[in-house]
């Protein structure tokens, strides 16, 4: 038993350092996807509310496609699709080169668009919770659309959307486990290698569970702090 636990250490023949490196890749990927995915999701939600038929149709199509496809399929389409597209572009330009798409970049693109599709629905629900009278009052005060959005609408959107966005983040964090299928060396990739080498599946999959649960628990505390921060003015107003 103690010999098995020693495999999680940092000495020679142990896998502790490899798991930590995989954990770093996992959290780095998720953190890179978060701002891009949420910002794109906000743009999609704004497109859904646009008066332009083209903008509404594009937003609807984007949301429908990437919420409907399995995340693993989206990952494969981006990873292999980018590679094939670049190869065809090079071939058309008569350039002879070996094309290899960086797995981290492919995972970043795939998981970001999935996050954007799901978060757009959360943003859209938050938009619908803001009374139209606030827009009319801002217009009556002579505020520009940009000033109205960034000073009045966006702070309220963040407060209303945060619970839903926290769920989107946790889903994203779990979806990062899929990137091991394109050879990105994350937690699951390192875990699978360790299991293959040591034949100790319970030990290493249990360690992977602990890593993901740690990230989830820490995320819960951070989002609770963010909800409290953005809800301060709202709570005072209700009192």
TrEMBL record:
Family annotation (NCBIfam families): HEQRo_perm_3TM (TIGR01726)
Record's subcellular location: Cell inner membrane; Cell membrane
InterPro entries, alphabetized: AA_ABC_transptr_permease_3TM, ABC_transp_permease_HisMQ, MetI-like, MetI-like_sf
GO molecular function: transmembrane transporter activity
Name of this protein: ABC transporter permease subunit
Transmembrane segments: 20-47, 59-82, 102-127, 202-226
Keyword terms: Cell inner membrane, Cell membrane, Membrane, Transmembrane, Transmembrane helix, Transport
One GO term describing the cellular component: ATP-binding cassette (ABC) transporter complex
Annotated family: Belongs to the binding-protein-dependent transport system permease family. HisMQ subfamily.
Major localization class: membrane
Record-linked PANTHER family: ARGININE ABC TRANSPORTER PERMEASE PROTEIN ARTQ (PTHR30133:SF2), CATIONIC AMINO ACID TRANSPORTER, MEMBRANE COMPONENT (PTHR30133)
Membrane topology type: Multi-pass membrane protein
Ranges where the ABC transmembrane type-1 domain occurs: 23-224
Gene3D superfamilies named among the record's database cross-references: MetI-like
Pfam families xref list: BPD_transp_1
Domain of life: Bacteria
């Amino acid at each position: 038993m103690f010999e098995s636990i020693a495999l999680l250490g940092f000495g020679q023949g142990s896998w502790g350092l490899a798991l930590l490196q995989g954990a770093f890749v996992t959290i780095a990927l998720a953190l890179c996807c978060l701002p891009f995915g949420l910002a794109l999701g906000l743009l999609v939600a704004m497109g859904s509310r646009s008066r332009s038929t083209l903008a509404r149709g594009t937003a609807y199509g984007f949301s429908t496609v990437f919420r409907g496809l399995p995340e693993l399929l989206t990952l494969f389409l981006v990873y292999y699709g980018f590679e094939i597209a670049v190869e065809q572009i090079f071939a058309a330009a008569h350039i002879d080169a070996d094309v290899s798409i960086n797995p981290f970049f492919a995972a970043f693109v795939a998981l970001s668009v999935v996050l954007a599709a799901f978060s757009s629905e959360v943003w859209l629900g938050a938009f619908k919770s803001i009374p139209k009278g606030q827009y009319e009052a801002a217009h009556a005060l002579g505020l520009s659309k940009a000033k109205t959005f960034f000073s009045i609408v966006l702070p309220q959107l963040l407060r209303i959307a945060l619970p839903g966005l926290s769920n989107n983040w946790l889903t994203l964090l779990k979806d990062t486990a899929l990137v091991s299928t394109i050879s990105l060396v994350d937690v699951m990739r390192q875990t699978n290698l360790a299991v293959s080498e040591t034949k100790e599946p319970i030990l290493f999959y249990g360690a992977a569970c602990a890593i993901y649960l740690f990230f989830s628990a820490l995320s819960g505390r951070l989002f609770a702090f963010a909800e409290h921060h953005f809800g301060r003015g709202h709570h005072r107003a209700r009192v």
